[in-house]
Amino acid sequence: MHMSRPQAMYQCCFSKFVKEFEWFRSQATGQLAYFIDLISYEYQISNVIEIIAATVKGTPATEIIEHLHPLGRSPYINTMLTFEKEDNLLDLYTVVLVDMPVAKYFAQYFENITQSGEPSKALLGTFTEVDVNVIFAHLRKIWLEDMYAFCQTLGGETWATMKEVLDFEADRHAIEIVHNSIAVKSTLNDPANRIQRQELFCNIGKLYPDCTCQVDANTILPSTSRNFSRINVDAALAAALEVYPTYSQAIQKSQDRVMSLSDALKYAEVALLKKSFDGQCQISIFYAYVKLKLIELENIRSINSALSFRSRITQDSKKPTVKYIPIF
What is the model's pTM? Predict the structure, then answer.
């Protein structure tokens, strides 16, 4: 497929970053090696879900490859792409997925949603009945909590820095799920389904337990009025986040139409990640490097897209909007 110059430039920049990531991943040993592997697992989970969901729909493997994240590469991915029929999904878990590093996350997810205790049998039903975005949210929650637990064992400055970063990630994960379920009028925002929405939230973060824990008649919290199970509109979400300055400011910018909630939270994320570069003798810098590089690449893509659009319009046409998140 022919690519325009802006697209080619973006692809070259992304390829360079992937090579850098693969290089320091190959040089790492001990705890750092596993830490870097954990970073890649987030993208590997995304790739596995993409492949299984596409397989259920009967999408050709050639089309699936285009949507896979380069940081989630695995020797097992190519094997997964050979599964073409829904019947083969029952073999997918036992033959391929069970040997992948991220298999433990899928096993835990299936254990939570099925009483059979057989993940392979739950695979087909799950991916035909449950929204793919909901499945990813469940798995990302499990991954975040695993990353959190590992960083806690590292202790020291790495733990101090990563705790703040992962608390933010867990909170953003919850805020965006609630906001998006309201925006698209998802069934998760229905009163009867909000308990399922709460299940997507991590048991870590500054919003836990007040906002994100499961609430029932016996739950006692300092302020149950802030619990996200009660939230059904953006105004209520903003009210619940009033006592959290970073999140309150982000949602205010969204309501004032200064920028989207997602972009406002990215600004906060960048500020947190930059702190990793101030530390000594700690490995959180690798996580920060990857996340900041990905934001930088999104900036490049946005600028290139605007330039490409500008070359196709007249002076009287509306100017393209450039989404740019400053880093340094």
Answer: 0.89
Q: How far apart are CA 152 and CA 160, in angstroms?
A: 9
Residue 229 lies in a domain: yes
Q: Which domain holds residue 248?
A: 154-284
Of the candidates 151, 176, 184, 153, the residue with the CA atom closest to the CA atom of residue 276: 151
Which residue in the block uniquely carries the two structure tokens 């300092």?
222
One-letter amino acid of 120? S
* Count of domains observed in the chain: 1
209 close to 221: Cβ distance less than 8 angstroms:
yes
Q: Cβ of 11: how many Cβ atoms within 10 Å?
A: 12
pLDDT, tens digit (0-9, with 9 covering 90-100), for 173-217: 999 999 999 998 888 889 888 888 999 999 999 999 999 997 764
In a domain, 14, yes or no: no
Q: What is the 3-state secondary structure (H, E, C) of 177-202?
A: HHHHHHHCCCHHHCHHHHHHHHCCCC
Q: Is the dihedral of CA 285, 289, 291, 295 positive or negative?
A: positive
- The burial class, CB within 10 Å (0-12 / 13-18 / 19+), for 239 is middle
Does a structural domain hold residue 237?
Answer: yes
**Contacts with 104 (C-beta within 8 Å, 6 or more apart), sequence order:** none
How many other C-beta atoms lie within 10 A of the C-beta of residue 321? 10
User: Within a domain: residue 265?
Assistant: yes
